Amino acid sequence: MMKKWESTFNNNHLRLMRVHIGLMIFYFIFFGLVAYFLSVLPNENSEPVGFLKNLMLIMVGYSPLFVLHLLLAIGAKKKLELSRKISEIVFAIMVLAFSIGTILSLLYFLPRTIWKSKES
């Protein structure tokens, strides 16, 4: 059986769950915009490439990231220690990979991974 936290600090496990769900929504909107602009821009073959085709191609590549955030959100709701630790790793990668990720990870996401109260 996986280790769980018995007591939480400021319900951060629920906040962390919402962060992962919010990231899934953000990625969906971002990749939807990318698919839209790819379908609007002219291509070299002069073949019309539809929005839905672009969106499906992008979502196939995005699906592992979506599944990762989905599993981490479920694990955070269940207060699983493994979910908290993997969330820290994911947010550390976000710090290195994206400039906006640096700001979001340091100021918002990483504090949400603290589940244990300071008294325990």
Automatic annotation (TrEMBL):
Source species, domain of life: Bacteria
Protein name, UniProt field: Uncharacterized protein
